[in-house]
Protein backbone atom coordinates (compact mmCIF):
# COMPACT_ATOMS: atom_id res chain seq x y z
CA UNK A 1 0.00 0.00 0.00
CA UNK A 2 2.83 2.37 0.88
CA UNK A 3 4.57 1.60 -2.41
CA UNK A 4 1.34 2.30 -4.31
CA UNK A 5 1.01 5.62 -2.51
CA UNK A 6 4.58 6.49 -3.52
CA UNK A 7 3.83 5.65 -7.14
CA UNK A 8 0.65 7.71 -7.04
CA UNK A 9 2.48 10.66 -5.46
CA UNK A 10 5.27 10.38 -8.06
CA UNK A 11 2.71 10.42 -10.89
CA UNK A 12 0.92 13.45 -9.43
CA UNK A 13 4.05 15.50 -8.61
CA UNK A 14 6.48 14.45 -11.37
CA UNK A 15 4.92 12.52 -14.27
CA UNK A 16 1.80 14.61 -14.95
CA UNK A 17 3.53 18.02 -14.52
CA UNK A 18 6.41 16.72 -16.66
CA UNK A 19 4.07 15.74 -19.49
CA UNK A 20 2.17 19.03 -19.29
CA UNK A 21 5.40 20.99 -18.99
CA UNK A 22 6.98 19.20 -21.94
CA UNK A 23 3.92 19.84 -24.13
CA UNK A 24 3.87 23.49 -23.11
CA UNK A 25 7.60 23.87 -23.75
CA UNK A 26 7.27 22.06 -27.10
CA UNK A 27 4.50 24.42 -28.22
CA UNK A 28 6.43 27.42 -26.92
CA UNK A 29 9.61 26.38 -28.74
CA UNK A 30 7.60 25.59 -31.88
CA UNK A 31 5.90 29.00 -31.79
CA UNK A 32 9.24 30.70 -31.19
CA UNK A 33 10.83 28.79 -34.08
CA UNK A 34 7.91 29.75 -36.33
CA UNK A 35 8.25 33.39 -35.30
CA UNK A 36 11.98 33.27 -36.03
CA UNK A 37 11.40 31.64 -39.44
CA UNK A 38 8.77 34.25 -40.28
CA UNK A 39 11.14 36.98 -39.08
CA UNK A 40 13.93 35.62 -41.29
CA UNK A 41 11.62 35.56 -44.33
CA UNK A 42 10.45 39.11 -43.55
CA UNK A 43 14.05 40.29 -43.22
CA UNK A 44 14.98 38.71 -46.60
CA UNK A 45 11.92 40.20 -48.31
CA UNK A 46 12.64 43.64 -46.88
CA UNK A 47 16.24 43.56 -48.13
CA UNK A 48 15.18 42.71 -51.68
CA UNK A 49 12.29 45.17 -51.57
CA UNK A 50 14.68 48.01 -50.72
CA UNK A 51 17.18 46.79 -53.33
CA UNK A 52 14.52 46.65 -56.06
CA UNK A 53 13.13 50.06 -55.11
CA UNK A 54 16.61 51.54 -55.28
CA UNK A 55 17.29 49.77 -58.56
CA UNK A 56 14.10 51.07 -60.19
CA UNK A 57 14.66 54.57 -58.82
CA UNK A 58 18.19 54.64 -60.28
CA UNK A 59 16.90 53.32 -63.64
CA UNK A 60 14.14 55.94 -63.78
CA UNK A 61 16.69 58.65 -62.98
CA UNK A 62 18.99 57.35 -65.75
CA UNK A 63 16.13 57.37 -68.26
CA UNK A 64 15.10 60.87 -67.23
CA UNK A 65 18.67 62.15 -67.76
CA UNK A 66 18.87 60.29 -71.05
CA UNK A 67 15.55 61.80 -72.18
CA UNK A 68 16.83 65.30 -71.44
CA UNK A 69 20.03 64.58 -73.34
CA UNK A 70 18.12 63.25 -76.36
CA UNK A 71 15.70 66.16 -76.27
CA UNK A 72 18.62 68.58 -76.48
CA UNK A 73 20.16 66.87 -79.56
CA UNK A 74 18.99 66.88 -83.18
CA UNK A 75 21.77 64.75 -84.65
CA UNK A 76 20.78 61.06 -84.63
CA UNK A 77 24.40 59.93 -84.63
CA UNK A 78 25.04 61.93 -81.47
CA UNK A 79 21.90 60.52 -79.89
CA UNK A 80 23.01 56.97 -80.77
CA UNK A 81 26.38 57.62 -79.11
CA UNK A 82 24.71 59.02 -75.97
CA UNK A 83 22.50 55.92 -75.71
CA UNK A 84 25.45 53.59 -76.26
CA UNK A 85 27.61 55.27 -73.61
CA UNK A 86 24.72 55.27 -71.12
CA UNK A 87 24.38 51.50 -71.48
CA UNK A 88 28.10 50.94 -71.08
CA UNK A 89 28.11 52.79 -67.75
CA UNK A 90 25.83 50.22 -66.07
CA UNK A 91 25.91 46.43 -66.45
CA UNK A 92 22.26 46.08 -65.47
CA UNK A 93 21.11 47.04 -68.95
CA UNK A 94 20.97 44.41 -71.70
CA UNK A 95 20.23 47.13 -74.27
CA UNK A 96 18.83 50.64 -74.59
CA UNK A 97 16.62 52.03 -77.39
CA UNK A 98 14.90 55.11 -78.76
CA UNK A 99 11.46 54.96 -80.43
CA UNK A 100 9.42 57.61 -82.20
CA UNK A 101 5.93 58.67 -81.10
CA UNK A 102 4.36 55.76 -83.03
CA UNK A 103 6.62 53.16 -81.41
CA UNK A 104 8.90 52.65 -84.41
CA UNK A 105 12.56 51.91 -83.74
CA UNK A 106 14.94 54.83 -84.34
CA UNK A 107 18.18 53.80 -82.70
CA UNK A 108 19.56 51.46 -80.06
CA UNK A 109 22.55 49.60 -78.72
CA UNK A 110 21.61 46.24 -80.22
CA UNK A 111 21.14 45.40 -83.88
CA UNK A 112 18.55 42.79 -82.85
CA UNK A 113 16.14 45.57 -81.98
CA UNK A 114 15.86 46.84 -85.57
CA UNK A 115 13.55 44.02 -86.56
CA UNK A 116 11.60 44.02 -83.32
CA UNK A 117 8.05 45.40 -83.51
CA UNK A 118 7.74 47.45 -80.32
CA UNK A 119 4.15 48.37 -81.10
CA UNK A 120 3.13 44.86 -80.09
CA UNK A 121 4.65 45.24 -76.62
CA UNK A 122 2.01 46.02 -74.03
CA UNK A 123 4.18 48.35 -71.96
CA UNK A 124 4.95 50.44 -75.11
CA UNK A 125 1.26 50.57 -75.93
CA UNK A 126 0.59 51.67 -72.34
CA UNK A 127 3.17 54.48 -72.62
CA UNK A 128 1.61 55.72 -75.86
CA UNK A 129 -1.76 55.73 -74.10
CA UNK A 130 -0.80 57.29 -70.76
CA UNK A 131 2.38 59.27 -71.53
CA UNK A 132 3.85 57.83 -68.31
CA UNK A 133 6.80 55.60 -67.36
CA UNK A 134 5.86 51.92 -67.65
CA UNK A 135 7.66 48.69 -66.74
CA UNK A 136 6.86 45.49 -68.56
CA UNK A 137 5.26 42.70 -66.58
CA UNK A 138 6.60 40.03 -68.90
CA UNK A 139 10.10 38.63 -69.30
CA UNK A 140 11.44 38.99 -72.86
CA UNK A 141 14.22 37.06 -74.55
CA UNK A 142 16.73 39.51 -76.02
CA UNK A 143 19.11 36.72 -77.06
CA UNK A 144 18.94 32.98 -76.43
CA UNK A 145 21.31 33.50 -73.51
CA UNK A 146 19.77 36.65 -72.13
CA UNK A 147 16.32 37.41 -70.67
CA UNK A 148 15.28 40.98 -69.97
CA UNK A 149 12.47 43.12 -68.61
CA UNK A 150 11.55 46.25 -70.54
CA UNK A 151 11.19 49.69 -69.00
CA UNK A 152 10.47 52.85 -70.98
CA UNK A 153 9.99 56.57 -70.34
CA UNK A 154 8.13 59.04 -72.62
CA UNK A 155 9.76 62.22 -74.00
CA UNK A 156 7.13 64.96 -74.28
CA UNK A 157 7.18 68.19 -76.28
CA UNK A 158 6.23 71.64 -74.96
CA UNK A 159 2.55 70.79 -75.40
CA UNK A 160 2.97 67.60 -73.35
CA UNK A 161 2.47 65.48 -76.43
CA UNK A 162 4.42 62.29 -76.94
CA UNK A 163 7.47 63.00 -79.07
CA UNK A 164 9.73 60.00 -78.49
CA UNK A 165 10.10 56.99 -76.18
CA UNK A 166 13.41 56.10 -74.53
CA UNK A 167 13.75 52.70 -72.93
CA UNK A 168 16.00 49.98 -71.61
CA UNK A 169 16.03 46.26 -71.15
CA UNK A 170 16.92 45.21 -67.59
CA UNK A 171 18.96 42.02 -67.39
CA UNK A 172 17.18 39.33 -65.38
CA UNK A 173 20.41 37.43 -64.76
CA UNK A 174 22.04 40.57 -63.34
CA UNK A 175 19.22 41.07 -60.85
CA UNK A 176 19.26 37.39 -59.94
CA UNK A 177 23.00 37.56 -59.27
CA UNK A 178 22.50 40.55 -56.96
CA UNK A 179 19.74 38.70 -55.08
CA UNK A 180 21.90 35.57 -54.89
CA UNK A 181 24.74 37.54 -53.33
CA UNK A 182 22.46 39.16 -50.74
CA UNK A 183 20.65 35.97 -49.69
CA UNK A 184 22.33 32.92 -51.24
CA UNK A 185 20.15 30.27 -49.52
CA UNK A 186 16.68 31.83 -49.79
CA UNK A 187 14.00 30.65 -52.21
CA UNK A 188 12.50 33.78 -53.79
CA UNK A 189 10.07 34.62 -56.57
CA UNK A 190 9.19 37.96 -58.17
CA UNK A 191 5.56 38.03 -59.34
CA UNK A 192 3.71 40.62 -61.42
CA UNK A 193 0.29 42.09 -60.73
CA UNK A 194 -1.34 38.99 -62.23
CA UNK A 195 0.54 36.69 -59.86
CA UNK A 196 2.75 35.32 -62.64
CA UNK A 197 6.36 34.61 -61.68
CA UNK A 198 8.78 36.90 -63.47
CA UNK A 199 12.01 35.57 -61.97
CA UNK A 200 13.03 32.94 -59.44
CA UNK A 201 15.99 32.18 -57.22
CA UNK A 202 16.90 28.78 -55.75
CA UNK A 203 13.93 27.13 -57.37
CA UNK A 204 11.43 29.82 -56.46
CA UNK A 205 8.26 29.14 -54.53
CA UNK A 206 6.72 25.68 -54.47
CA UNK A 207 2.99 24.93 -54.38
CA UNK A 208 3.04 23.76 -50.77
CA UNK A 209 5.50 26.33 -49.46
CA UNK A 210 4.59 28.83 -46.80
CA UNK A 211 5.21 32.27 -48.25
CA UNK A 212 5.84 35.75 -46.92
CA UNK A 213 4.89 38.40 -49.47
CA UNK A 214 5.87 42.08 -49.61
CA UNK A 215 5.03 44.53 -52.45
CA UNK A 216 7.66 46.57 -54.30
CA UNK A 217 6.87 50.25 -53.88
CA UNK A 218 7.90 51.43 -57.37
CA UNK A 219 6.44 48.45 -59.20
CA UNK A 220 3.13 46.56 -59.27
CA UNK A 221 5.15 43.48 -58.36
CA UNK A 222 5.49 41.36 -55.25
CA UNK A 223 8.48 39.68 -53.65
CA UNK A 224 7.62 36.23 -52.32
CA UNK A 225 10.00 34.54 -49.89
CA UNK A 226 9.60 30.91 -48.92
CA UNK A 227 9.40 30.41 -45.14
CA UNK A 228 11.77 27.61 -44.20
CA UNK A 229 10.29 24.29 -43.16
CA UNK A 230 9.93 23.29 -39.53
CA UNK A 231 13.10 21.76 -38.13
CA UNK A 232 11.69 19.07 -35.84
CA UNK A 233 15.15 18.11 -34.64
CA UNK A 234 15.89 21.68 -33.54
CA UNK A 235 12.55 21.95 -31.77
CA UNK A 236 13.16 18.67 -29.93
CA UNK A 237 16.68 19.73 -28.93
CA UNK A 238 15.50 23.08 -27.58
CA UNK A 239 12.56 21.39 -25.84
CA UNK A 240 14.97 18.99 -24.14
CA UNK A 241 17.22 21.88 -23.05
CA UNK A 242 14.28 23.72 -21.45
CA UNK A 243 12.62 20.57 -20.11
CA UNK A 244 15.65 19.07 -18.33
CA UNK A 245 15.84 21.75 -15.56
CA UNK A 246 12.08 21.47 -15.06
CA UNK A 247 12.35 17.69 -14.74
CA UNK A 248 15.15 18.03 -12.18
CA UNK A 249 13.21 20.65 -10.19
CA UNK A 250 10.12 18.42 -10.13
CA UNK A 251 12.20 15.57 -8.71
CA UNK A 252 13.72 17.87 -6.11
CA UNK A 253 10.21 19.02 -5.18
CA UNK A 254 9.08 15.38 -5.02
CA UNK A 255 11.94 14.48 -2.67
CA UNK A 256 11.14 17.49 -0.48
CA UNK A 257 7.51 16.38 -0.27
CA UNK A 258 8.61 12.83 0.55
CA UNK A 259 11.00 14.17 3.19
CA UNK A 260 8.28 16.23 4.88
CA UNK A 261 5.81 13.33 4.63
CA UNK A 262 8.31 10.93 6.17
CA UNK A 263 9.10 13.48 8.85
CA UNK A 264 5.40 13.94 9.57
CA UNK A 265 4.85 10.19 9.51
CA UNK A 266 7.72 9.68 11.96
CA UNK A 267 6.29 12.38 14.21
CA UNK A 268 2.82 10.83 14.06
CA UNK A 269 4.31 7.40 14.72
CA UNK A 270 6.21 8.79 17.69
CA UNK A 271 3.06 10.44 18.98
CA UNK A 272 1.08 7.24 18.44
CA UNK A 273 3.73 5.24 20.29
CA UNK A 274 3.52 7.72 23.15
CA UNK A 275 -0.27 7.42 23.24
CA UNK A 276 -0.02 3.64 23.14
CA UNK A 277 2.53 3.74 25.92
CA UNK A 278 0.26 5.92 28.05
CA UNK A 279 -2.73 3.71 27.31
CA UNK A 280 -0.72 0.63 28.21
CA UNK A 281 0.40 2.21 31.48
CA UNK A 282 -3.11 3.45 32.19
CA UNK A 283 -4.74 0.12 31.46
CA UNK A 284 -2.14 -1.67 33.56
CA UNK A 285 -2.62 0.81 36.40
CA UNK A 286 -6.40 0.63 36.24
CA UNK A 287 -6.37 -3.17 36.40
CA UNK A 288 -3.79 -3.44 39.18
CA UNK A 289 -4.36 -0.28 41.26
CA UNK A 290 -6.56 -1.98 43.86
CA UNK A 291 -4.22 -4.97 44.09
CA UNK A 292 -1.31 -2.59 44.72
CA UNK A 293 -3.12 -0.31 47.17
CA UNK A 294 -4.62 -3.12 49.30
CA UNK A 295 -1.26 -4.60 50.32
CA UNK A 296 0.14 -1.07 50.64
CA UNK A 297 -2.60 -0.25 53.15
CA UNK A 298 -1.79 -3.40 55.13
CA UNK A 299 1.94 -2.69 55.04
CA UNK A 300 1.38 0.91 56.12
CA UNK A 301 -0.78 -0.23 59.06
CA UNK A 302 1.80 -2.77 60.21
CA UNK A 303 4.55 -0.17 59.95
CA UNK A 304 2.54 2.17 62.17
CA UNK A 305 2.11 -0.63 64.76
CA UNK A 306 5.81 -1.42 64.64
CA UNK A 307 6.70 2.26 64.97
CA UNK A 308 4.60 2.48 68.15
CA UNK A 309 6.34 -0.60 69.54
CA UNK A 310 9.90 0.31 68.60
CA UNK A 311 10.61 3.84 69.85
CA UNK A 312 14.33 3.78 69.29
CA UNK A 313 15.54 6.81 67.31
CA UNK A 314 17.26 4.70 64.68
CA UNK A 315 14.14 2.52 64.27
CA UNK A 316 11.94 5.60 63.92
CA UNK A 317 14.24 6.89 61.20
CA UNK A 318 13.81 3.68 59.24
CA UNK A 319 10.02 3.71 59.77
CA UNK A 320 9.83 7.27 58.41
CA UNK A 321 11.74 6.25 55.29
CA UNK A 322 9.41 3.28 54.81
CA UNK A 323 6.32 5.51 55.20
CA UNK A 324 7.71 8.04 52.71
CA UNK A 325 8.40 5.33 50.15
CA UNK A 326 4.88 3.87 50.66
CA UNK A 327 3.43 7.36 50.10
CA UNK A 328 5.57 7.71 47.00
CA UNK A 329 4.30 4.38 45.64
CA UNK A 330 0.73 5.48 46.33
CA UNK A 331 1.34 8.78 44.51
CA UNK A 332 2.74 6.98 41.45
CA UNK A 333 -0.28 4.67 41.36
CA UNK A 334 -2.58 7.73 41.50
CA UNK A 335 -0.79 9.29 38.55
CA UNK A 336 -1.07 6.02 36.64
CA UNK A 337 -4.80 6.06 37.25
CA UNK A 338 -5.11 9.55 35.79
CA UNK A 339 -3.18 8.48 32.68
CA UNK A 340 -5.55 5.58 32.27
CA UNK A 341 -8.64 7.83 32.10
CA UNK A 342 -9.17 9.24 28.58
CA UNK A 343 -12.02 11.47 29.72
CA UNK A 344 -12.90 13.40 32.85
CA UNK A 345 -16.20 12.19 34.23
CA UNK A 346 -16.99 14.74 36.94
CA UNK A 347 -17.06 18.33 35.69
CA UNK A 348 -18.50 21.41 37.33
CA UNK A 349 -18.68 25.14 36.94
CA UNK A 350 -15.95 26.74 39.06
CA UNK A 351 -14.04 29.99 39.32
CA UNK A 352 -10.31 29.90 38.56
CA UNK A 353 -9.64 32.43 41.35
CA UNK A 354 -11.21 30.03 43.89
CA UNK A 355 -8.84 27.21 42.90
CA UNK A 356 -5.80 29.46 43.22
CA UNK A 357 -6.91 30.88 46.61
CA UNK A 358 -7.43 27.35 47.96
CA UNK A 359 -3.88 26.47 46.90
CA UNK A 360 -2.25 29.71 48.11
CA UNK A 361 -1.66 28.62 51.74
CA UNK A 362 0.22 25.54 50.59
CA UNK A 363 2.20 27.46 47.91
CA UNK A 364 3.07 30.29 50.31
CA UNK A 365 4.14 27.82 52.95
CA UNK A 366 6.49 26.05 50.55
CA UNK A 367 7.79 29.41 49.30
CA UNK A 368 8.47 30.73 52.81
CA UNK A 369 10.36 27.56 53.74
CA UNK A 370 12.62 28.04 50.71
CA UNK A 371 12.92 31.82 51.23
CA UNK A 372 11.20 32.51 47.90
CA UNK A 373 9.10 35.58 47.24
CA UNK A 374 5.59 34.84 45.98
CA UNK A 375 2.87 37.08 44.58
CA UNK A 376 -0.22 36.75 42.44
CA UNK A 377 -2.21 38.99 40.12
CA UNK A 378 -5.86 37.95 39.91
CA UNK A 379 -8.70 40.00 38.38
CA UNK A 380 -11.62 40.94 40.63
CA UNK A 381 -14.21 39.79 38.12
CA UNK A 382 -14.82 36.03 38.52
CA UNK A 383 -13.54 33.88 35.68
CA UNK A 384 -15.55 30.70 35.26
CA UNK A 385 -14.44 27.46 33.65
CA UNK A 386 -16.09 24.07 33.32
CA UNK A 387 -13.76 21.31 34.56
CA UNK A 388 -12.91 18.75 37.25
CA UNK A 389 -11.90 20.89 40.22
CA UNK A 390 -9.65 18.35 41.99
CA UNK A 391 -7.69 17.50 38.87
CA UNK A 392 -7.30 21.15 37.92
CA UNK A 393 -5.99 21.87 41.43
CA UNK A 394 -3.52 19.06 40.91
CA UNK A 395 -2.32 20.71 37.66
CA UNK A 396 -1.85 24.16 39.22
CA UNK A 397 -0.15 22.76 42.33
CA UNK A 398 2.13 20.43 40.38
CA UNK A 399 3.42 23.27 38.14
CA UNK A 400 3.81 25.62 41.13
CA UNK A 401 5.80 22.95 43.02
CA UNK A 402 8.03 22.41 39.95
CA UNK A 403 8.68 26.16 39.90
CA UNK A 404 9.54 26.23 43.63
CA UNK A 405 11.86 23.24 43.30
CA UNK A 406 13.75 24.90 40.42
CA UNK A 407 14.69 27.97 42.52
CA UNK A 408 17.16 28.54 45.31
CA UNK A 409 16.94 31.14 48.09
CA UNK A 410 15.71 34.63 47.11
CA UNK A 411 13.87 33.36 44.07
CA UNK A 412 10.66 34.87 42.69
CA UNK A 413 7.39 33.10 41.87
CA UNK A 414 4.37 34.84 40.34
CA UNK A 415 0.93 33.66 39.26
CA UNK A 416 -1.22 35.86 37.01
CA UNK A 417 -4.62 35.36 35.43
CA UNK A 418 -5.89 37.12 32.28
CA UNK A 419 -8.72 36.54 29.81
CA UNK A 420 -9.60 37.03 26.16
CA UNK A 421 -12.99 36.79 24.50
CA UNK A 422 -13.05 32.97 24.67
CA UNK A 423 -10.18 31.81 26.90
CA UNK A 424 -8.48 32.41 30.21
CA UNK A 425 -4.68 32.38 30.62
CA UNK A 426 -3.02 31.28 33.87
CA UNK A 427 0.68 32.17 33.81
CA UNK A 428 3.13 30.73 36.37
CA UNK A 429 6.54 32.38 36.16
CA UNK A 430 9.71 31.60 38.12
CA UNK A 431 13.34 32.71 38.20
CA UNK A 432 14.75 29.21 38.53
CA UNK A 433 17.46 27.33 36.68
CA UNK A 434 15.29 27.00 33.58
CA UNK A 435 15.20 24.14 31.08
CA UNK A 436 18.08 23.60 28.62
CA UNK A 437 17.12 23.83 24.97
CA UNK A 438 18.04 20.20 24.28
CA UNK A 439 15.56 19.04 26.97
CA UNK A 440 12.61 21.22 25.88
CA UNK A 441 11.42 18.69 23.29
CA UNK A 442 11.34 15.87 25.88
CA UNK A 443 9.62 17.50 28.86
CA UNK A 444 6.26 15.92 27.98
CA UNK A 445 7.68 12.45 27.38
CA UNK A 446 6.49 9.82 29.91
CA UNK A 447 9.09 8.90 32.56
CA UNK A 448 11.50 11.64 31.47
CA UNK A 449 12.65 13.75 34.42
CA UNK A 450 15.60 15.89 35.45
CA UNK A 451 14.91 15.33 39.17
CA UNK A 452 16.72 12.73 41.21
CA UNK A 453 13.48 11.33 42.65
CA UNK A 454 10.91 12.31 39.98
CA UNK A 455 8.61 9.86 38.23
CA UNK A 456 8.61 11.70 34.93
CA UNK A 457 4.81 11.65 34.90
CA UNK A 458 3.96 15.01 36.47
CA UNK A 459 3.91 17.16 33.33
CA UNK A 460 2.45 14.28 31.32
CA UNK A 461 -0.47 14.10 33.76
CA UNK A 462 -0.89 17.89 33.70
CA UNK A 463 -0.98 17.95 29.91
CA UNK A 464 -3.44 15.06 29.82
CA UNK A 465 -5.80 16.83 32.24
CA UNK A 466 -5.59 20.21 30.47
CA UNK A 467 -6.16 18.69 27.01
CA UNK A 468 -9.09 16.66 28.36
CA UNK A 469 -10.64 20.01 29.32
CA UNK A 470 -10.09 21.31 25.74
CA UNK A 471 -7.19 23.45 26.89
CA UNK A 472 -3.53 23.84 26.08
CA UNK A 473 -0.32 24.11 28.09
CA UNK A 474 2.79 25.91 26.80
CA UNK A 475 6.26 26.24 28.35
CA UNK A 476 8.88 28.87 27.53
CA UNK A 477 12.28 28.47 29.10
CA UNK A 478 16.02 28.52 28.65
CA UNK A 479 18.94 27.57 30.87
CA UNK A 480 19.52 30.03 33.78
CA UNK A 481 16.67 32.33 32.64
CA UNK A 482 13.71 30.85 34.47
CA UNK A 483 10.53 29.32 33.11
CA UNK A 484 7.10 30.63 32.07
CA UNK A 485 4.24 28.11 32.02
CA UNK A 486 0.94 29.21 30.48
CA UNK A 487 -2.24 27.18 30.90
CA UNK A 488 -4.94 28.13 28.38
CA UNK A 489 -8.50 27.01 29.16
CA UNK A 490 -11.80 27.80 27.44
CA UNK A 491 -14.24 29.94 29.40
CA UNK A 492 -17.25 28.16 30.79
CA UNK A 493 -19.73 29.14 28.04
CA UNK A 494 -17.33 28.14 25.25
CA UNK A 495 -16.39 24.90 26.99
CA UNK A 496 -20.03 23.84 27.42
CA UNK A 497 -20.99 24.78 23.84
CA UNK A 498 -18.04 22.93 22.33
Automatic annotation (TrEMBL):
Instruction: Outline the extent of the Histidine kinase domain.
Output: 287-493
UniProt cross-references to PROSITE patterns, sorted A to Z:
HIS_KIN
Q: Which positions make up the signal peptide? A: none
Q: Which of the seven top EC classes does this enzyme belong to?
A: transferase
Q: Which residues cross the membrane?
A: 7-29, 240-261
Which keywords annotate this record?
Answer: ATP-binding, Kinase, Membrane, Nucleotide-binding, Phosphoprotein, Transferase, Transmembrane, Transmembrane helix, Two-component regulatory system
The molecular function terms of the Gene Ontology recorded here are: kinase activity
On whether Transmembrane helix is a keyword of this UniProt record, the answer is yes
Which reactions does this protein catalyse?
A: ATP + protein L-histidine = ADP + protein N-phospho-L-histidine
EC number(s) in its UniProt entry?
A: 2.7.13.3
InterPro entries from the entry? HATPase_C_sf (IPR036890), HATPase_dom (IPR003594), His_kinase_dom (IPR005467), HisK_dim/P_dom (IPR003661), HisK_dim/P_sf (IPR036097), Sig_transdc_His_kin-like_C (IPR004358)
Q: Which PANTHER family match?
A: PEROXIDE STRESS-ACTIVATED HISTIDINE KINASE MAK3, SENSOR HISTIDINE KINASE
Name recorded for this polypeptide:
histidine kinase
Organism, by scientific name, is: Cytobacillus stercorigallinarum
Which classification does the entry list for the species? Bacteria, Bacillati, Bacillota, Bacilli, Bacillales
